Amino acid sequence: MVGYQECTMEEDSRDNRALQLWRKTLTAPAPFADETNCQCQAPHEKLTIAQARLGTPVDRPVRVYADGIFDLFHSGHARALMQAKTLFPNSYLLVGVCSDDLTHKFKGFTVMNEAERYEALRHCRYVDEVIRNAPWTLTPEFLEKHKIDFVAHDDIPYSSAGSDDVYKHIKEAGMFVPTQRTEGISTSDIITRIVRDYDVYARRNLQRGYTAKELNVSFINEKRYRFQNQVDKMKEKVKNVEERSKEFVNRVEEKSHDLIQKWEEKSREFIGNFLELFGPDGAWKQMFQERSSRMLQALSPKQSPVSSPTRSRSPSRSPSPTFSWLPLKTSPPSSPKAASASISSMSEGDEDEK
């Protein structure tokens, strides 16, 4: 029971240390090896790959070492370090970075200097510790100093410094663990792109404010690049105008389609209303017929009612005019002869009327 409790306490202590290390890695840059002491307290026993894969030993992590130049730090570098970090369940990744002197001597000139390359590695999430001025070829003294259990690198033989493979003795000692390269990305590929498109990047930096002296560009090339930048600006303006004009034309076309559609709808409505009024059975025809019948009725004479037959008159004879008899004021006869004369004239008038 006591042994079980001790084992549980050791596991809890190991988990706590791993958690603290993980938090430190995510919240702060990785420390430099020459500014910190080795965290291994127990004797450094040699491990096999099988033991390391099982997560042993309990009292310390497996110390994995990866080295390189890491110029223009890119995703290929990060993926290689990720593989080295995750080779074993409990691992501590040390990364060695070669100095400028060694790199320029054995490999060539770098874009970034050693201080920039050190800082780039410190801020990679998989790195626990950075070793500055790492050796080009690993020696037993270096491996013992940093208590390195395994070395991680791609399995392609790396010929340099007069050797066909600088990791040959590490492989023979059983301390080499291979990783996979990331195809399509490398520092040499990036430099090749820059050299291939040199004019583009020179013009870019001139446009961003760098001087011809800083870019090591001649006077003639500077003028040529600046002129080309002006031409590109004009092309960009023309392109923008073309795009805006296309957008305007598209908007006009859309509006014209809308107007045509509305015009068709209105024309259909107008034609329908016209046919409803003036068609064969339209309301206008009915109204016209009603008004026409009313006008005909108003113009035609009314028929008199049937009366009793009257006597026919001769067409040659016109009806005798009727005279209204009005009383006339006459003066009294002056003598009996005058009175008899007036009476006789009245009687003659009556006979004529008959």
UniProtKB/TrEMBL annotation:
Pathway: Lipid metabolism; Phospholipid metabolism; phosphatidylcholine biosynthesis; phosphatidylcholine from phosphocholine: step 1/2. Residues 294-354 are annotated as: Disordered. Residues 65-193 form the Cytidyltransferase-like domain. The keyword Coiled coil applies. Signal peptide: none annotated. It is an enzyme of class 2 (transferase). Its EC number is 2.7.7.15. GO terms for molecular function: choline-phosphate cytidylyltransferase activity; phosphatidylcholine binding. Residues 224-251 form a coiled coil. This is choline-phosphate cytidylyltransferase. It comes from Aotus nancymaae (Ma's night monkey). The gene is PCYT1B.
